[in-house]
Amino acid sequence: MDIQTRKYQFIEGFIRLSNLKIIEKLETVLKKEKQIEFEKTLIPMTKEELIARDQFSNEDIKVGNVISQNDLKEESKSW
Prior knowledge:
By secondary structure, this protein is mostly helical. Helices cover 76% and strands 0% of the residues.
C-alpha cells in the first residue's frame, strides 16, 4: 500500500473518531513527531558565524538601524 492510500485511510478513520481522548493523543503524537522532524533540519551555527552575526547586529545598532519594542508592537498589528 502506498503512502497516499495509507494517509487517506488514516484520515477516514480519524474523521469517524468520537472519542476526544484518542483525538488528543493523536494530536500530541503528531505535534511531537513534527517537532522532531523540524529539529532534524536545523543546522547549528559555528562560533565564527555567531561572532559575525553579533558584529553585524552591533553595526546596525551603531547606525541606528533599529526599532523599539513598542514601535514593533504597533507595526505588527497591521500584519
